[in-house]
Specification:
This is DUF1491 family protein. This protein is 24% helix and 27% strand.
């Protein structure tokens, strides 16, 4: 059994990783310190954004026992559309984190899974 890194520590390390790899990131909303779900909005700086959220539990198995795995929920969407989707998630679970990344290439700097492979 492995211990899971807290959300607060994971977000801090993630923001640092984005900066090291040439992007910009900021925590827009702090959720539960220990285990709040983490969402990431990637601003492509061209008027569109991508929204990533936690992958469903069905994405995890013996071959993929990762600590955090994400799925793209919105792609090249207008900001209000992505934020409305996040707000909908937040009504269900108010302990969510939101990190915003700015990257012209649209890089999320996350381990993601293709929704078609679930």
């Amino acid at each position: 059994m492995s211990l899971r890194v807290t959300s607060a520590l994971w977000v801090s390390a993630y923001v640092r990783r984005v900066f090291v790899q040439g992007g910009f990131a900021a925590t827009m909303r702090r959720g539960a310190e220990e285990a709040g779900a983490i969402f990431v909005i990637v601003d492509r700086l061209n008027g569109t954004v991508d929204l990533y959220g936690p992958a469903p539990q069905t994405a995890f198995d013996d071959d993929r026992p990762r600590d955090r795995l994400f799925i793209r929920m919105e792609h090249a969407a207008e900001r209000p559309v992505a934020l409305a989707r996040f707000d909908k998630e937040m009504r269900f679970d108010p302990d969510l984190w939101l990190v915003e990344v700015e990257d012209r290439e649209g890089r999320a700097f996350l381990e993601t899974i293709d929704p078609d492979k679930l």
